[in-house]
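Office hours follow-up: a student asked to see two folded examples consecutively, so here they are.
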Amino acid sequence: MNMDTTFLALPNGAAAPIADLPVLPFDDFRAQLIQAVMQDGLRVSSFFATPADNQPGDFELIAVLADDRAHLLRLAASRVSKSYLALSADCPAFHWFEREIAEVTGLVCENHPWPKPIRFTRPPVGKGADVLPGVTDYLRIADEAAHEVAVGPVHAGVIEPGHFRFQCLGEEVIFLEISLGYQHRGIEKMLVGGPDVRSAQLIECAAGDTSIASAWCYARLLAALSPACQASPAAELWRGIALEFERSANHTGDLGALAGDVAFLPTQSFCGRIRGEYLNMTAALCGNRFGRGYVLPGGLRYLADNKKVADLQAWRKRVHADLTNALDLLFDTPSVLDRFENTGVLAPADAAAVGIVGVAGRASGLNNDIRLSHPYGPYTDRPLSLCAEGAGDVLARAMVRRRELDASNQWLNEALNAATELSADEQTSALSSQHSPARALAPSMIAVSLQEAWRGELCHVALTDSHGRFRHYKIVDPSFHNWYGLALTLRGEQISHFPICNKSFNLSYCGHDL
């Protein structure tokens, strides 16, 4: 395949006129996408439908594929009406995307192996109390010995709502079906017509534990669409520092929660405190433990002087030493390793087939860290080492987190040292004047921005109208790729292993329901 003639090629964080986007006949579009993913090794970063211009009832399917080897994004489109032949039966990576397309637009994905909506959504007025047709039709085993176990959507009061339906023979899980959408907020729809004073806040709320990555992804997308939103290298350096604090806090919390799920209380208690330390480092930067309001279009809201940098360096070193001790306890305990090893295995071939990203993908041997494959900002000059395992079990997912904590700590040491060497002018250039951006962007453009959030690849795609306002905004949280991967790990597993399998992924419910 000649990629350059079939697809529009964009580097990460770039934009192009919508008129440059190739619009292929559907049969060609379908064949080229399947070949690109199944044979050429590209990944599906985003796949969505938007109403076609001047063609009521028609839709334009837009695909964004990540070409990691070329460090480029490949885009193509096709126009369809009412129905189209689904890609999923031939390329499973499109499976979840096509179910969402059918749910949102009403397009019929013919020959889709499982054309059920992926979310519980409010029914149309006058349709009664039932949710969308088919949404509660769960797969069932036709065996008298089979039984169902239903968990949620209401849990223990500290996590978001989600429903898990297990089909079991005895203690063995034959199939797990995951139903989400209980707090669908319509964030993507609210972004249409922007950017305005609400846009950045909505982006940060897409997944609250991913505020820095989300805000940075959005800011880089705006920079591709407006020179006024360009950020200086100093601002990008500080954004990277904030992102690695966010990554460290969440990985620490996850490892502590995994320790708790196997009743290993020393590491659980240590990590609970240490997670708070990383959150407090973020608060020292911007006054908010989750980094809200720190990353703005064009730069940052706050600056850190050299005294604050020195304090952060000493703080980080002390905390990482404590974390190392806590994790040594965890990974040197045979009873913990016995519970983690060979539990919840996601085979590399399955992970690649369904498009798993981030920690879960790297634990199954996939090399898909956006900081390396599509480098941006400070990661261009200061790359991190790839942290990957191959077993695809709970232990591998835990080990990836531990290795990434060490890599982030080393990177933060170098980045904070570099921050002390910034001149006064460079520091001042990091500040943004875009506290309430409500200006038009370049008209009739398409832009794509990728980030390596702490869970994995985060993808934002925006299309602007002729007035430079968002006419479509699509967010693909890493959890969108990975929920089905969690379901796969439970096949043939003991149902009692679900808590640690679930925590080893630790996916976002709200990030899925945008």
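And the second, which I mentioned at the end of office hours:
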Amino acid sequence: MSAPDPTRQFRLALRLAGRELRGGLSGFRILIACLALGVAAIAGVGSVRSAIEAGLADEGAAMLGGDAEMSLTYRFATAEERDWIAARSSAMSEIADFRSMASVGDDRTLTQIKAVDDAYPLVGTIGLSPDIPLEVALDGRDGTPGVVMEPVLIDRLGLSPGDMVRLGGEDFVLMAALEREPDANASGFSLGPRSILRRRALEGTALLAPGTLFDSRYRVLLPPATDLEALEQGARARFADSGLRWRDSRNGAPGIAAFVERLGAFLILVGLSGMAVGGVGVSAAIRSYLAGKVQVIATLRTLGAERRVIFLTYFLQIGALAGAGIAIGLILGAVIPLLLAPLIAARLPIPADFGIYPRALAEAALYGGLTALIFTLWPLARVQNIRAAALFRDEGRSSRLPPRPFALAILGLVALLVAVATLLSASARLTLWTAVGIGAALLLLALAAVGIGWLARRLRPLSRGRAPLHWALAAISGPRNEAAAVVLSLGLGLSVLAAIGQIDGNMRRAIQQDLPDRAPSYFVVDIQPDQIGPLLDRAEPDPGVSRVERAPMLRGVITAINGLPAREVGGDHWVLRGDRGVSYADALPDDTVLTAGSWWGAGYDGPPQISFAAEEAAEIGLELGDHLTVNVLGRDIEAEVTSFREVDFSTAGMGFILLMNQSALEGAPHSWLATIYATPDAEAPLMRDLGRAFPNVTAIRVRDAIDRVTELLEGIAAATSYGALATLLTGFLVLIGAALSGERDRVYEAAVLKTLGATRGQILRSLALRSGLLGAGAGMIALAAGITGGWAVCHFVFETGYTVIWSNALAIVLGGLLANLLAGLAFAWRPLAARPAQVLRGRE
């Protein structure tokens, strides 16, 4: 017997697949729709993210305010450092950036001040109202220096151009409203609206006194042939011990770029969850289609068709249709962002260059193709088990599990999909945990579907006498039930939505409800050493003030650990990425709990010692006895780690990663930080008194900071909710597919029931009960999965407390019940209208 010819088999399968395709899209519309929607969601998110990244790259110099920027904390560059920068640039601008208080009479509010020189801006133009040159505005009037402010700050203080305003106790005249600031995004997140004034107007004032909190920034224009990478390495080598931070036009707004990258990665993971839901629909659609092809397949087997030919026939057919679904999704994912570009751009605070981005589309196509393969192989693997005897017996239902080679191939494809998502994602850890979560949810839902069928069988004897309920339970527990498709599709979509709802609700609760109860009313910064005593004398006796905490405040950069570069030892930990707050203490502060080591003791005057935050030390890998090099105001201080202590940042109170002994730092110029806990009634009078007595001091109201963070969360929540709703829409499509695939069985069932005397009302109630019970079951499982997933993200990712948000949870359960009920009832009219004689005769 000659061996089969693979080429002949493939040609035969291709010809048979072509004939099958001539039958149209019947049975495959849901497959195409699920793939198209999932691919479109991923392609759309990827296209928008690519548009923003392209906009950031194209406008990098404009957003940064120059080709490159070097910044320092707490100090300005020395003459030698300035000469090094100037020698390598064609133009340079020096900026000081800090917070202060703007006041008119007793009204005081926080503002972010940018003190500029005559060269500012190097790139872009300032937009003012009235339209006057910036240099004219900053010259002021009648010997009083000028200032320009954002409109929201002007409105808040009730000002008009020409009015006087005090900034940190110094008089300025408001000359214009700041309508456009070309480098606004380069400064990152700020707590107050912007004010711009001239740098030399601050000479000799308390606004930039030694120890005050400010950043100095040196922006430069470079010759056209400059190698940015080489210049960056040279700057880092030259200023290795100075605490310098570098940015350039390759990434003019790194904070925004990182945020966009991570948010885009998260949304793509939500999209992959939608693809998993769509995959369930793909698998259900293929099973339903192949169930109707049992007679055709059995006939082909009777005529001598090999198993390989049968498999290839339907693999090629379904592959072509899946390719069509992916292509439709790619077109939608590319075109919809272009059509919505004006609306999206209007809501973005950053530039976006919308266009067709092949990489984003290729990623979406890859995800779609792998998902289609994973969920197609399982039902297709069972096709080759159909024998010729199926012409005479109902053998269309073979083993639920695929043969071992197919099972191994499916597992390999799942591993490949996870690996691709991990490599392409901005957060490998988040991707892996999301994949684990999706897999666990699918397993839980599959077990739940089996459990629902088992429970229905156990409850059937108890439902005798209640005909509609008995029929519904019989249908759910029967061999051809649709419980698996309904529970998997609806349950996974609702699980994603439930988890996002729980995470969002807990973050909002923590910020808006829990945090204000534990957080101070105000952070007070830039307190000079001779002001801390009088400030305490005013605040502590106030009956509305429950507590005042204070500490000396410096900024430092950990540059080395045991003589090695810090980031080589501790990795990319957030503590090592830039400068951090540093303080000192003599005696052990109240409420400080040491977890290891010993305190240096009051009056200690030996070599510098450090007490480090215990949790962060463990993450970095620090041990007692390690030596850290900390750069403070350009001076390296090497100190031994002698203790670890608990630091709780969740209260928004005072907490320092790094504490040193008093003699190590008290000689350095520094200011003080205070936190004031006061009742709402006491806040305003206290701040007025402190503002009059200490005009240079900046008070940051915690509630205002919370409001800014809440605004940011609202945008994130909206974006993630859109992604979750797309997943839920895919799930609803799968429900429709499940209802369509089971419609033939329901028509036959209704015909039998009518023959036995059932009324239309009883049949309708039975169908409604079936849909409602499956929807409620899927909703309950989704509720458990969503609560568990929300807890895991809050606990392990955000490291916050967790409370079940029951309003969101109950909405999920009701949503699952109603969604499945509506989908079931929408396809009830044909079973109700069926004529028993015609249906039963057709089954003979």
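Two things to take away from it. The two ends are 41 Å apart (CA to CA). Residues 1-60+255-426 form one domain.
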